[in-house]
Design a protein that fits this description.
mainly alpha; 2 domains; 0% strand; 15 helices; MetI-like fold
């Protein structure tokens, strides 16, 4: 075998190793920056974590003992080092609100948010992308105007108001969906959590009645989230498509007599897939971190509701742990979007 192919393969593997190493270093540094931000925010906000533990009627001696035990008497660099070590060893402290470790709480509450946001982004993509394509292909028509109005409503309508209207109409009046919470109360606790995703766990347990009951409770909050997501996705899809439909290669395809459906979905839509990956990734991450209002309205036991309760109770370990997890998920989704970007676009490799 000649040395040229071997040398070429070595260069290829060298570039791949360098790319993977760069990816890992970037993720690590970004996560370390997130740790620094959450730590120092927790130290500058006007909430005393010691008082949250001992109460405002504790004596000075009890207060100082708790402060020393929590390590708050140490210099900030030492506290930050201990915080980083704790995070990388899976110790986010103990929640004052629940009495459990923050890691255990997050493992309980985050799957509910993940389940709702995942259904929401599926609705947003399945509905939003076709709406954006249709609006762009019929620019200026009444269909385009209606789709743009829907997008404007998605940007301007308050989430809590839409959730309350949905509950009043589809639950209280029409009885088409389930009420607040993830299940009717008599189903609660009948399925042992395996993944934390109630739809998956109920199917694994063979409890199909619980599965369908969970769907009736999930469909309304997920649809509200999906509405805001599809408004953004449809708007961006329309913008990307308008840019492609004005390109010369699209005009050439039309002049050659290529069917309009092929022109739109093959020639114009294919180039925007890479851009849509980034848009969908950002929208999904936004649903995961921005579902606080929806979870509050629907009494959804997710990470947003947990974070709100922690803030009201001055439970800083829970606040910082939740913020850190949401930020880490945001970083992860963005990096996955970058990887998919490179897979779909050869120019980025």
């Amino acid at each position: 075998m000649s040395p040229a192919p071997t040398s070429h393969r070595k260069r290829i593997w060298g570039r791949r190793v360098s790319a993977i190493a760069g990816f890992v270093v970037t993720v690590f540094l970004t996560f370390l920056g997130l740790l620094a931000i959450t730590f120092f925010i927790g130290r500058v906000i006007p909430i005393d974590p010691v008082l949250a533990v001992v109460g405002d009627r504790a004596t000075n001696a009890v207060y100082e003992a708790a402060r020393v035990q929590m390590g708050l008497d140490q210099p900030l660099p030492v506290q930050f080092f201990r915080y980083v070590v704790g995070v990388f060893t899976g110790d986010l402290g103990r929640s004052v609100s629940t009495g459990r470790s923050v890691v255990e709480d997050i493992s309980r509450f985050f799957p509910a948010t993940l389940e709702m946001a995942t259904i929401g982004i599926i609705i947003g993509v399945v509905v939003g992308v076709p709406l954006g394509v249709i609006a762009a292909s019929r620019q200026g028509s009444w269909i385009d105007q209606i789709i743009r109005i829907v997008g404007l409503l998605g940007y301007s309508m308050p989430a809590f108001w839409l959730g309350l209207v949905g509950l009043a109409l589809f639950y209280a009046r029409l009885r088409w969906v389930g009420g607040p919470g993830r299940l009717d109360i008599f189903y609660d606790g009948l399925v042992s959590p395996v993944t934390g995703l109630l739809l998956v766990d109920s199917l694994l347990a063979g409890e199909f009645d619980i599965f369908f009951n969970a769907i009736t409770h999930l469909i309304l909050p997920a649809s509200v989230l999906g509405f805001f997501s599809l408004a953004y996705i449809a708007r961006m899809t329309r913008s990307f498509m308008l840019d492609q439909l004005n390109q010369e290669f699209v005009t050439t395809a039309r002049v050659k007599g290529v069917p309009e459906r092929v022109v739109i979905w093959r020639h114009a839509f294919n180039p925007i897939r890479v851009q849509l990956i980034t848009v969908i990734g950002l929208s999904y991450a936004g649903l995961l971190e921005g579902s606080v209002m929806i979870e509050t309205v629907f009494s959804w036991p997710g990470i947003g509701n947990y974070l709100t309760t922690a803030l009201l109770n001055a439970d800083m370990n829970a606040v910082l742990g939740s913020t850190l997890v949401i930020g880490a998920v945001f970083i992860f989704i963005n990096k996955i979007s970058d990887v998919l970007y490179r897979v779909l676009d050869p120019r980025a490799r």
